[in-house]
Amino acid sequence: MIPSVKGTFTSEVTESKVTQVKGGCSSCGSDDSATMEVDEKLKARIDNHPCYSEEAHHHYARMHVAVAPACNIQCNYCNRKYDCANESRPGVVSELLSPEEAAKKVLVVAGRIPQMTVLGIAGPGDPLANPDKTFRTFELIKEQAPDIKLCLSTNGLMLPEYIDRIKQLNIDHVTITISMVDPAIGVKIYPWVHYKRKRYRGLEGVKILHEKQIEGLEALKEADILCKVNSVLIPGVNDHHIPEVNKVINEYGAFIHNIMPLISAPEHGTHFGLTGQRGPTTAELKKVQDQCAGNMKIMRHCRQCRADAVGLLGEDRSQEFSKEKFSEMTSEYDPAKRQEVHAGIEKFREEVKIAKDLVKNTNLVTSGQKILVAVATKGSGLVNQHFGHAKEFQIYEVDGKTVEFIAHRRVDHYCQGGYGENATLDNIIKTLSDCKGVLVAKIGELPKKQLHQAGIKTVEAYDLVDKIALEFHRQWVKEQ
Questions:
Q1: Whole-angstrom Cα distance, residue 374 to residue 394?
Q2: Alpha carbon distance 337, 441 (integer Å)
Q3: Beta bridge partners of 382
Q4: Residue, of 93 and 283, whose pLDDT is higher
Q5: Exposed, middle or buried by CB within 10 Å (0-12, 13-18, 19+), for 450?
């Protein structure tokens, strides 16, 4: 379903205003024109990719299929789990699929979630440690659903050997997890590497992994395949080193850098979890992301998805499409219907863009005072969710003129069968403690009161995030 904006801002957009917003300078030099042309080509490649485009993730969905169980390296932050519906983290799946089962699932999901544009293989092991299953799945999808983008996530060890196959299948987006460019740091992360039928431990193995990751990154650039690099931020291990990783991957052609927090709860059974290695705080994560932001594009909207995730980022509908369920479903994949839905999304996105530009073009002044606000949203760039129904809040930094998305924060949703839980509310307040305001469609009197007591103001609205955030910032500055 395409969300209805119910006249919240579209009624203000006239044809003349659209022309003003779309109009540009006609005297641009040739160099600028060439740059704009390159930017437009890049934009077209990522425009409906929810992982590569922060703006697209509000509107388009992705899915992963779990066809790759084996892995060729051991990571101290990883413990692949099967038949686990209660964990949301990489390497976790409820069931493994054959390529043929995966292809049917994709067609079923693409019919029932027509805004799904991307099919990724991310495990639960490494796709390139399972090349036959991985590439057979991609072959089937390319043949049966050619409008779906194909994505691959890998540790990079075998990437150089499969570049030609990846290009042949028109896999346009590849993610490599690179958490170090100094093998001396890598030995603290990777106990062993299995390469060419031999297991290498310690520094010897990490050197091989590092060499192949950089070789693969160079090969992707040469093949004109967009590369996202994931880096796991591990306090005391590589937190000081990530800016160097950022510098190196930028030099070798990565398009976007996703710096992710270590997940290390003991119950996950990982080496880091069992040995007490903590993950970074939100402030520590943001600090490193900010340090790297001047060098290249930083991804801040990653949800660290399961290897069988389905739906919009921030939601997981995988249980709706279990093997038992999708096996009984008929495929409703209809390219024409999907095109119609995508056209509706793009029309809506254009309306949102015009409205945002109109807000930007008003006489806004940067106060120099940056604040964080939390937004309850179901997507589409709108404040449109009840406080009690939110399973995550999107965090924006606002300075009076700009509204910049910087993170999402997961929470347990407050309303349980119509009743709020005090412990849950306490945890939500703690999670949002550095925010000055919470923007929601609705909120009950009790949570509103407790948020205010904690110094967090609330705003009830149904409108553009940018508009409400800027209005809140103006009011907040007045009251200081």
A1: 6
A2: 31
A3: 464
A4: 283
A5: middle
